[in-house]
Design goal:
With about 475 residues, the protein is an alpha/beta fold. It has helices spanning about 10-25, 65-70, 80-95, 105-125, 150-160, 200-210, 220-225, 235-255, 265-270, 280-290, 325-330, 335-350, 380-395, 405-415, 420-425, 440-445, 450-479; strands at about 1-5, 30-35, 130, 140-145, 165-170, 175-180, 185, 315-320, 355-360, 365-370, 370-375, 400-405, 430, 435-440. A 5-stranded mixed β-sheet has the order 3-4-5-6-7, with helices on one face. The protein has a 5-stranded mixed β-sheet with strand order 9-8-12-14-13, with helices on both faces. The radius of gyration is 28 Å and the shape is globular. Bound molecules: uracil.
Length: about 475
């Protein structure tokens, strides 16, 4: 009997190397026991045969099997390693085995892979972050109990979606952490280590109660989509029963109530930018923009995030729209993208104190996902609706150079959709007094998954900013 001890529960490489050696040695599946470090005492009394050194020869299996095995190995069933080896053994004699949908081994492995994917999907949907610390110190921590070993599989999704915020997802198996640059993993912890509530908890529960539409309630569908096993870790869960119980009464009340008329003040504000100011001074503009209702984004955002910087700044940097942190702080570029921007400005030799920083769209556009607000790209009508603010900011400041960071900013600054890569690296005339430079958005750099690409793209970003610095120096001499 051969006893293979894998390094950990998701040790696909260890499994693959052992399986290849065993198969090349002609070791039958029934003569192999598989376990994971820490569990080996379960087999302590079994006589075991040594495994040959790793083979130099090899054999190939289909990419389909490898892809299936990489997912199925994350299932919690202890039999999975043996099942995968049996399949590998059989595949060497029958290349089309995976196409036999009635084969019991194929049925079982397919069901395992499906269960893993389902669990991954549930983790994406039901992780709820809680805030620890405030403002720049804030970190978001969630507790989740996965059914299978999916933490490494699911973590990149959160890094992409919540690129701007440092988070940790704690689970009993493994914990995943994101610092804005890379994901790291540490051993699992107990639930006692996870925060149980935060200052946003009550707001979130109130929000959930508000968006709950009793007229659309389908209890069965809701329970299938949000199975009860996840409820204990969802802040909104305690509301579900009372909301369901009160749904019929609430629907009757909704029907009985007449459609509401917009409030007078609101009606007035909905006419975009009707009030004209005498002078395009920044402070007046800022006050006006605070009441902007030119597109619907104001409804969900905390506040208008207007630009910031000296009134006569020679350079204006334009981003896309405020992120979560900016929306709460009311200031542009104060989150991770802002930190990245600050660093790049220093490297490019641009003093941030000379820079006016603003966004093409001045309200945070997001969709709520649990307690998190997921950034959404602004649409063309929203960019157009907000463009007058940018134009009036530029008119008030009179910069010699406007740097558009990312596609949304480029669209606003140049007045039309402008691909970044084709247009970066050279100055573009805006009018006789000002030029534009197009580059990437710092959040794009934060989202790049590959370290080399991150370094390369960051350097390109800095070199674009250096071009801006050189132009500022030139125009200062000319003045
Ligand atoms: N991204 C932006 O485009 N603007 C900000 O203010 C922050 C992040």
């Amino acid at each position: 009997m051969h006893h293979i001890i894998l390094d950990h529960e998701t040790d696909f490489d260890g499994w693959r190397q052992s399986a290849r050696t065993l198969a090349l040695d002609g070791v039958k599946p029934e003569d192999v026991m598989w376990s994971v470090k820490g569990d080996e005492q379960l087999f302590a009394s079994t006589d075991t045969a040594a495994l040959s050194p790793p083979p130099t020869e090899t054999f190939s299996v289909s990419a389909k099997f490898v892809a299936l095995a990489k997912i199925a190995i994350l299932h919690r069933d202890r039999e999975r390693f043996a099942l995968l080896y049996r399949l590998l053994w059989r595949l060497r004699g029958d290349h089309d085995l995976l196409d036999i949908a009635t084969d019991p081994d194929v049925i079982r492995i397919t069901a395992m892979a499906k269960a893993v994917r389902h669990d991954e999907h549930k983790m994406h949907a039901f992780v709820r972050f809680r805030e620890i610390g405030r403002e720049r110190e804030a970190r978001y921590v969630a507790w989740f109990e996965p059914e299978h070993h999916i933490v490494e599989l699911a973590a990149p999704f959160f890094a992409r979606r919540f690129a701007d915020m440092p988070w940790s997802i704690l689970t009993p198996d493994l914990c995943a952490h994101w610092d804005g640059f890379a994901i790291s993993f540490t051993p699992g912890v107990s639930k006692a280590e996870a925060p149980t509530s935060d200052r946003l908890e009550e707001t979130w529960r109130r929000y959930y109660a508000t968006i709950f539409n009793p007229a659309r309630l389908k209890v069965k569908a809701m329970q299938t989509e949000m199975p009860k096993r996840y409820w204990r870790n969802l802040p909104e869960a305690s509301l579900i029963k009372p909301l369901i119980a009160g749904a019929a009464r609430a629907t009757d009340a909704m029907i009985a109530k007449a459609a509401s008329e917009p409030h007078k003040v609101q009606k007035r504000l909905e006419e975009p930018m009707r009030r004209k100011t005498a002078a395009d001074e920044l402070e007046t503009l800022r006050e006006e923009a605070a009441g902007c209702r030119a597109c619907p984004l104001w409804k969900d955002a905390t506040q208008t995030v207007f630009g910031e910087g000296p009134k006569r700044a020679p350079i204006m940097l334009v981003g896309e729209q405020p992120g979560d942190k900016e929306d709460l702080a009311g200031k542009p570029f104060v989150g991770p993208a802002g930190q990245m921007l600050d660093r790049a400005l220093v490297e490019a030799g641009i003093d941030r104190k000379l820079v006016y920083v603003t966004n093409a769209v001045k309200h945070f556009k997001f969709v709520p996902r649990g307690k998190i607000r997921l950034h959404q790209k602004p649409s063309t009508p929203e960019i157009r609706a907000c463009r007058p603010w940018y134009e009036r900011e530029r008119a008030a400041i009179g910069p010699v150079l406007v740097v558009a960071m990312g596609a949304t900013a480029a669209q606003s600054v140049l007045g039309k959709a402008t691909p970044i890569n084709k247009n970066r690296g050279h100055l573009i005339d805006l009018d006789e007094k000002a030029k534009a430079l197009v580059t990437v958005h710092p959040s794009y750099l934060l989202r790049l998954p590959d370290e080399d690409a991150k370094v390369r793209e960051y350097e390109r970003f800095v070199s674009d900013l250096k071009m801006a610095a050189a132009y500022l120096r030139k125009s200062a001499h000319a003045a």
